[in-house]
TrEMBL record:
This is Activator of Hsp90 ATPase homologue 1/2-like C-terminal domain-containing protein. Pfam families: AHSA1. It comes from Microbacterium trichothecenolyticum (Aureobacterium trichothecenolyticum). InterPro entries: ASHA1/2-like_C (IPR013538), START-like_dom_sf (IPR023393). It comes from the Bacteria.
Amino acid sequence: MPVTDVTTDPEALTLTLTADFAAPVERLWEAFTDPRQLERFWGPPGYPATFTEFDLTAGGRARYHMTSPKGEEFHGVWEFLEIDGPRTFTALDSFADADGTPLAEMPTSRMVFAFDQTSTGSRLVNTTYFDSAEALEKVVAMGAVEGATMAINQLDRVLDGLRAYAAGKGTQTEILDDTHVRITRLIEGPIDLVWRAHEEPELVQQWLLGPDGWRMSVCEIDGSVGGKYRYQWEPLEGTEGETFGFDGETLLTEAPHRAVTTEHMTGTEFPSTLNDLNLYEEDGATLITLLIEYPDKETRDIVLATGMTDGMEASYGRLEGVLAGV
């Protein structure tokens, strides 16, 4: 992971994040100063950022919001103070309302981003200065250390480009914390087709099958917010296993980029998971990112032990074949 250290200093009133990248300083600078690239990693998993304003000049400002899996928006605003590209820029960072007005009850901090060349690429040192120990403690208590770490650890895929980042890796499963797992898979095909293949039952039934020897006997999907879905699988003749299924509800949809659903094992009292699907296209290929939130660590470990990753890889392999024929 790129992030090598995150340190809080209650005497200096600072929070400092350090990360190393196998990319030149100029490429790192580009990622932080192009809003379309910045919003691909600035929000931590489950809270992607959308920049609606970005004026990279002294006295200019940037506005953004992060959207939770349930559709809640958390707004922020930067006021740029100093810019010395491609080496450093400084900005005031404030929590804000939906109109971009800083919230008086929340702390405003001064962020300094410094980009330096290393023997293997470049290093980011992001130092945030606070006005008081109380302000520092408040932001840390809100999860700033964990959120910043997970956000910046997403930057590699932006710097490398999707094909280089995902080449030969297949389906990747990352444990982010006790209750969150991130699954990624690069699919050869445009985002619109990948989205359709997740939303249209006649396409879903062709690929979402897991290991060989199973068929999807029920596929009902209402992809609108509040809509329900139901899947059921049954073994083909000669395959051992019992019929099972999942049901859930759509909480958020932003076609063709994001869909958030609950997932519950039909006919059981098991708690639901929260599944946050994100799609991003680059050079004719689409990166599928599925963030799964489990109710607890025990449930997470039970599910991972079922061979979920292998089953998903088999399904995603079929998906590419389906897309080639659409």
